[in-house]
């Protein structure tokens, strides 16, 4: 069956989103909405935000448009409320109470637009003893138990960049939340506030592990379990050239193929015998160091041993499978991940490069019918 494709730019074409500029998970969540086709207007502040990179390279602002609003100016809040009145979703990532003090909290926004989905992205959440405390990804994931699971048992926990907290536990849960709330708003005419806290999302990601822990199938310590590096056939190994291979041969048939291609004999029974894991790990470690990463990649190519080379960020776009799928794309001279996931009827794309602060004010004022954004109309002579 042939699926009809829409002329738009993704399944969220027609959805309007206001993003109050911030850093980290908020902008990434808004980028995902923009990648899916939403018309995202980023409200930048004069002078930019802390930790900001050169706007020309901040690809988390791709597929968006930008206006600059000084929320501390007398007419600043009303400009944002004018946008909120015409939006489906608003995303902000301030500490609890800040948006209210600036005059753009949920109450005035819903007074202008009762159908608005108001998405709030924070680390600690809107309430609780730590709600007003500052923090970053690593501090948020630490109390949830997830950071403590990562790393070797005899070393400190390994920092998983800021992918686990900011983006997995934060951005993705915010996007799921605002889209679910949008569905509700369209069905009932009533918007609501979505409280997306990194601590909540990150804890939720470990749901399966908590079930295994309760069943006695997971030890509450690092490097002692099936998928935390404790298992010798689920981990990474150094090769002869100082690079690494990743192994995930969990099922019996994959494990058997893994041993066969490595050339290891007599270890079939070690798969379920934890007492033999130490000896197996030594054999696997020694074996991998006999060839380079590329040589081992060739050995396992086409197999079901669940072994893959560990690539760097610059190497990844050239991996044959990723290149064939177009997992990465080039836009404006910047190599970057292409939008995900993929849709058969409403395809997505990188339509524009990073939004430059304030560059789209006139277009947004016209398209959204918010003339108050234009200086000449705000301050008539």
Query: Biggest sheet, open or closed, and with what strands and sense?
Result: 6 strands, parallel
Query: How many helices does DSSP assign?
Result: 14
Query: What order do the strands of the largest sheet run in, or round the barrel if closed?
Result: 3-2-1-4-5-6
Oligomer: single chain
Separation, N- and C-terminal Cα atoms: 61 Å
Helix content: 25-40%
Mean pLDDT: 94
Identify low-pLDDT runs: none
Order of helices and strands: EHEEHEHHEHHEHHEEHHHEHEEHH
In total, the number of strands is 11
The global form is elongated
**Strand-residue proportion:** 5-15%
What structural class do helix, strand and pairing data support? alpha/beta
Gyration radius over CA: 25 Å
Structure explained in plain terms:
By secondary structure, the chain is an alpha/beta fold. Helices cover 33% and strands 14% of the residues. It contains 14 helices and eleven strands. It has helices at residues 25-35, 76-84, 98-101, 106-112, 137-141, 163-188, 198-205, 207-214, 252-262, 277-288, 293-300, 320-325, 361-367, 375-378, and strands spanning 16-20, 39-44, 64-68, 89-92, 117-122, 192-197, 234-238, 244-248, 307-309, 328-331, 334-337. A six-stranded parallel β-sheet has the order 3-2-1-4-5-6, sandwiched between helices.
Please give a handful of descriptors for the protein shown:
381 residues; three-stranded antiparallel β-sheet; 14 helices; alpha/beta; elongated; 11 strands
Short description:
It is built from 14 helices and 11 strands. With 381 residues, the protein is an alpha/beta fold. The strands form 3 sheets. It has a 6-stranded parallel sheet with strand order 3-2-1-4-5-6, sandwiched between helices. A 3-stranded antiparallel sheet has the order 7-8-9, with helices on one face. The chain has a two-stranded antiparallel ribbon with strand order 10-11.
